[in-house]
Write a structure and sequence with these properties.
Elements lengths: L10 H37 L8 H35 L5 H30 L6
């Protein structure tokens, strides 16, 4: 009775795992797209404060939620890129299209983060000129 079982991988098992990994990467790209859409919705809620007076609690909740969603989108993009690099290391297939889509979504998220940071700096601190 052997205490350890030796597992051997066949070529068809490796190919099946690569196909599963490709499906996971593509599905993860779609999930990140929905995360970006949710970020745009919260960003629209953030922009509502430009047209009217809102409570400071609303501003705090929306801005913190927006920043959380943006950083979550960045982290999720990094995970997908790591999975893509893993797939490229296992096989000779590297999904350039998925990587470019992830980088494009990350660029959109960084633009939103820049606008939110500038808006927060202007509304909280104002413009200061020093001589």
């Amino acid at each position: 009775m052997a205490p350890f079982k030796v597992t051997t991988f066949k070529l068809c098992d490796i190919i099946a795992s690569m196909l599963r990994l490709r499906r996971i990467i593509r599905f993860s790209g779609r999930v990140q797209s929905f995360l970006v859409l949710l970020t745009f919705f919260v960003f629209a809620l953030f922009l509502i404060q430009l047209w009217g007076l809102l409570t400071p609690q609303f501003y705090t909740v929306i801005s913190n939620g927006l920043i959380f969603l943006i950083y979550l989108g960045f982290a999720y993009g990094v995970v997908i890129i790591i999975l893509t690099l893993l797939l490229g290391a296992i096989s000779s297939v590297f999904l350039w299209g998925e990587v470019l889509k992830i980088l494009g979504k990350s660029l959109l998220l960084s633009l939103i983060l820049t606008f939110v940071s500038l808006f927060t700096t202007l509304t909280q601190g104002g413009i200061v000129f020093t001589i």
